[in-house]
């Protein structure tokens, strides 16, 4: 496939969760490949001066309504976690580590983590809860800890996050078709147009 869309995401972003479900449908329709780009949203926020919408009271009130509307529109289950936001550094290092292990492992990991974040919410900021989710998905929690402490994994996540910032990313999800950036799951129709 010559057509490609880059998907910069963080599993702690509910809008990335929505895009995780919708983007593959668009890619299939347009015969495009998705290049999955795990980044650390907290690092992007720090570098750009952006903040989570939950830190802005008026936005926070509207956030659940907006997310529920989009979930219904995309036909996916959605529930906002009670503990939100969480530090996603271990989860995103995990995404990088699983991506290095191959597409099957990577997608199984993402499906499990996104489901535990936004379908049947569990507090993945707690080590014991994360270990339980990993075990249920067929991963070894002890091996996971070793993987996310691999210096190469840490460096790759840092590099991808810095690359995202250099290219103009300020939030998640962000998509690139060629050099053109689209931000937010509500711009996916523009992504599809760019791939058409």
Automatic annotation (TrEMBL):
It comes from the Bacteria. Belongs to the GST superfamily. NadH family. It is an enzyme of class 5 (isomerase). Gene3D superfamilies: Glutaredoxin (3.40.30.10). Its EC number is 5.99.1.4. It catalyses: RX + glutathione = an S-substituted glutathione + a halide anion + H(+); 2-hydroxychromene-2-carboxylate = (3E)-4-(2-hydroxyphenyl)-2-oxobut-3-enoate. This is 2-hydroxychromene-2-carboxylate isomerase. It comes from Noviherbaspirillum galbum.
